[in-house]
Design brief:
3 domains, 15 helices, Transposase Inhibitor Protein From Tn5, Chain A, domain 1, 11 strands, nine-stranded mixed β-sheet, globular, about 450 residues, about 40% helix, alpha+beta, Transferase Inhibitor Protein From Tn5, Chain A, domain2
Length: about 450
């Protein structure tokens, strides 16, 4: 599997042929053992030094590392009719070992980066690749000035990253005209500028954004006063139920797993600009309200207000909006794969610039784990040889099925992934959910050792 990941850097150009070649070696090395440190993944001190020098080279930047992967991602996107561009932010905490030049997170005593990533996925949650990233930290002097920043132009705010992400989706719409591109965001992206951008952009992408602001419509509410406007949330709440649905909610630190019954409402609205920005035009979008009824009433009841430009004329169209939003959880799995599977917060490099280069390499590695995990669900009948080498799948087969001969033809991805996941602790019970990224990355680590031993023994015989 690690051999295939080098294709994600095909055509990389950091201005030096040797550095280009070194990038392929490094990413194959890191992908072969995602949880190992750089020293542990590299074969000896010479290889380790070469990796450190690569990350330290002034010609190497995160943008140059990521660019060939972005182009490969776009090629994959063009083969799908609908692609979701999911963006979100996570913390990368390096407080225990900050690099030189490392600034802070939300406290002067916490050091690290905020990682804002744009991940392309299919509605079936197959990760197609990373389309962009922003790694940023904060100046300690800027902390505690939230009210002062509120009046600044969006270009001077951290929230600009959400508008940048939407514009990226719009550019993708122009580059991939046969693909419907939908920008899917969490509540932090409920920014009026995105709605204006959607109406003014030459090639607007559709969007789904979870709402936090209860914006006003242009209609006044005479019952509440001459200067009071009707609220979007109130308008959708009193509209008729368009559909009902039952979903299974997984367990989280805040709630127990349960089956939730949902009522779904949907309307189209016109929204007036915020009072402080009255010079902006009014905008139109659709609102889908998802509310749990007969819930526990303990603060964990489902209540989503989804803003979208996707159609809502039929029940199927409304349910599609909800399904697309639910797929947003894939980026949370991606961040978890980075942090737990690749242990990126344990990386120790001397400077912030080296750290950013290294993080970008690991990010592509984490994507690869996510990709092959969901590939086994979306294309289960494909031969495992399309992803894994003979030494990898054959050695795993021998360990997982010691009483069976190696098949003459490679097994399917579905069959092989069950074996690989078992190496990572998957129980493979009859009604168990498909294996997730965690069992896969652990399985990959063990598989790598088996494959090395397989090749060594083969060469000795």
């Amino acid at each position: 599997m690690s051999d295939g990941i080098s294709l994600e850097l095909e055509g990389i150009d950091v201005g030096d042929k040797r550095l280009n070649e070194r990038s392929n070696i490094i990413i194959e090395t890191l992908a072969a053992d995602p949880q190992a440190s750089i020293n542990g993944a590299c074969d000896g001190w010479t290889e380790t030094q070469a990796a450190y020098r690569f990350f330290d080279n002034s010609r190497v930047t995160p943008e140059k590392i990521l660019q060939p992967h972005i182009e490969a991602t776009k090629q994959r996107i063009r083969t799908h009719s609908v692609v979701l561009v999911v963006q979100d932010t996570t913390e990368l905490d390096f407080t225990a070992h900050p690099a030189d030049g490392q600034r802070c997170l939300n406290s002067e005593k916490r050091f690290g980066f905020y990682d804002h990533t744009h991940l392309a996925i299919t509605p079936e949650k197959l990760s197609l690749g990373i389309l962009g990233q922003e790694l940023y930290d904060r100046d300690p002097a800027s902390l505690g000035r939230t009210l002062e920043r509120r009046t600044l132009p969006i270009e001077q705010k951290e929230s600009m990253r959400w508008l940048t992400g939407y514009r990226l989706a719009c550019e993708l719409t122009a580059e991939c005209p046969e693909t419907t591109v939908v920008s899917v965001c969490a509540a932090e992206a409920d920014i009026y500028d995105i709605f204006v951008e959607s109406e003014q952009h030459a090639t607007p992408a559709a969007f789904i954004i979870r709402s936090t602001e209860n914006r006003s419509t242009p209609e006044r509410d005479p019952e509440l006063g001459p200067n009071v406007y009707r609220k979007v949330r109130d308008e959708v709440s009193v509209s008729g139920v368009r559909a009902t649905r039952t979903i299974d909610l997984p367990q989280t630190p805040q709630r127990q797993a349960r089956r939730a019954k949902l009522e779904i409402r949907a309307i189209s609205v016109t929204v007036k600009p915020p009072h402080a920005r009255s010079h902006l035009p009014s905008v139109k979008y659709n609102v889908v309200l998802v509310e749990e009824f007969d819930g526990p009433g303990d603060g964990t009841d489902v209540c989503w207000v989804l803003l979208t430009t996707l159609p809502i004329a039929t029940t199927d169209e409304i349910l599609l909006v909800i399904d697309y939003y639910k797929a947003r959880w894939t980026i949370e799995e991606f961040f978890r794969t980075m942090k737990t599977g690749c242990r990126v917060e344990e990386i120790q490099l001397e400077t912030a610039s080296r750290l950013k280069n290294c993080l970008t390499m690991y990010k592509i590695t984490a994507w690869r784990v996510m990709h092959v995990t969901y590939l086994s669900r979306t294309n289960p009948s494909v031969s495992c040889a399309s992803v894994f080498s003979d030494s990898e799948w054959k050695s795993v087969w021998c360990v997982a099925k010691p009483d069976e001969n190696i098949p003459s033809k490679p097994p399917t991805l579905r069959t092989f992934f069950r074996l690989l996941a078992q190496l990572g602790g998957y129980n493979n019970r009859k009604k168990e959910r498909p294996p997730g990224p965690q069992t896969i990355w652990i399985g990959i680590r063990r598989m790598t050792d088996f494959a090395i031993a397989w090749m060594a023994a083969k060469n000795k015989i």
